[in-house]
Structures are given as structure tokens and as C-alpha cells.
Amino acid sequence: MEVNPLLKKLGFANTDRVVIFHTDDIGMCQASLAAYADLLEVGIISAAATMVPCPWFPATAAFCRENAARVDMGVHLTLTSEWDSYRWGPLSTRDPNSGLLDAEGYFPRRNDAVFAAAALSTTSGFADVARAEIEAQVARAVAAGIDITHIDTHMGSVFHPTLLPLYLETAQQARVPAMLPRLEEAQIRAMGFPAEIAAYLAAQLETLEAAGLPLLDTILSVDLGQPEARLEQTLRLLDTLPVGVSYFILHPSKDTPELRGITPDWRARVADYQVFCDEALRAYIAQQGIQVIGYRAVRETLRA
Questions:
Q1: Which of 28, 69, 170, 171, CA to CA, is 20 to 30 A from 229?
Q2: What CATH number is attached to the domain comprising 199?
Q3: Residue 287 contacts by C-beta under 8 Å, 6 or more apart in sequence?
Q4: What's the total number of domains in the chain?
Q5: Greatest alpha-carbon span in the chain
Q6: Across-strand partners of 17?
């Protein structure tokens, strides 16, 4: 694959290794916001995204307003609600026939339910419903005073052929980049996407890059199912960092009774928080000559 043209637009050389350290799920619960506030002080993370339909979004928005000069916050577009005892639902509708809700009245737990509804869009009108929800989440973030730097996707739910155009149109309307990776079909399938969606997405990504949209070279993340030796796992991943602009996803949270009650992977989330507070990680990044940027830099290349 050719050198990512985004490198030059950002002012880097073709041999530079650049990374966005991106904290996902901010506002999902109190523990996620508290961890983000601490990590912003530490200064290793460089961007984040908030889940607007979740209970701790109002507090996240208040934090962003109070720290506007330092915050690089996007919208983590959310169409799923994966936990058993802690759920959230759409902003735009409570209609059980909309296709956005499961039998319990929340977003469905898994992408397959979202993709099944999207596949029926031509007869059900799901595309219009999904568009309204995606736009509502972005609009609420902006109305709450967040200077959003990008949009991305919780669990990859917008990467269905019915939903990807809505994702791109919403980004264009907001004049922000949509998180898009420069991945080939086999790589997308390895991430767990069905074969037909992987083929579609790979073809679209090639077209979008040719049209000048900013794409990221790779997505890196330490498996949330592996909470042990989290620092060592993070360093090994950074050893694989290619030339180009990479997207390193972490899910940091502070250790609270609430977090433990929400998710079985709480140990890994707490470990992410601890690792990105660790000066050993900062020293390694500097030693390796890795360049760290936020999403605001990408947004400005797009607006330019």
C-alpha cells in the first residue's frame, strides 16, 4: 500500500510513525469520565469520543465546556447497548417498530441485529430512522457545547452498506472527519465483520481515499479479554506501529463498584487507565520517536 497522503497534509515525512491515542466510551459511565479527566492531565492520550445516549454524557459535556482548550472530543456514534444490566437507547425515537430498539426497549446488544434491520431498509425505512438517530447524537453533542473534532463508531455498527453513506454525510454536514481505516478486505474480516460487509467496506475505503478523505493506516487495541500484563502488551503493539497515521484505541476507566457491576471486562479497562498514567509508556513513546497527534489536527486538514 502506498504511503498515506494524510502524512504530508499533517506536515510529516513519509517515514514518520504517527499515532492518535484514542479513548473510547467516554460518558458510558462515571468511571470512564473520571479516568479521562485524569489522563488528560497526564498528557499521553490525544483524542477521545463520547457516547451521547449514555447516562454520563451530560457530565462529559460539562467537562468539555470547562476544559475546551485541552479537550479533543468526538462523537462515538452508538447504535448498540451491549451490557446485561446497564442499558441505553436512542435519542430520536421510542417507537418499538423503528428497528432501533430490542424487545427490552434499548438499542440491541449486537451488531447483527443492527445489520439485519439495515438489510431490510428498502422496505422498512430503517435508513431514515438511523439517519435521524445519528444526526440527533451529533446535534446533541454540539448543542451541549462540545467542539467536536470527529465522529467514529461504537462496535463498528455504521459499517453496513445502508449506514456507511449516512455516517459520511453526517461527518460532511458537521465538517469533521469520520474515522475510517485503510484496511483491506481480509483485515476487515479478521475484525469479525461478515464477508459481504468486509468486501463492500474495502471497496468503499479505496474510493474514499481516492476522493481525498483522510484515512488511518491501522487500528490497534489491546484485547479487552486480556487484563494481565497490559503495559507489556501495549508496548508490543507499539513495536508493530507502521509508517503512517495509526489509531490506538483504549477503554480506560477507574475502578469503581459501578464499573464492576456493568462489565465483565472491567479489569482490562482499569488496566488501560493505569498503563496510560505510567511514565514508562511516555518514555517509550519518546524513545521510539513516535509522533502523537489528536483528531483536531486531522479535522483542520479536512477543513483546509
A1: 28
A2: 3.20.20.370
A3: none
A4: 1
A5: 56
A6: 244
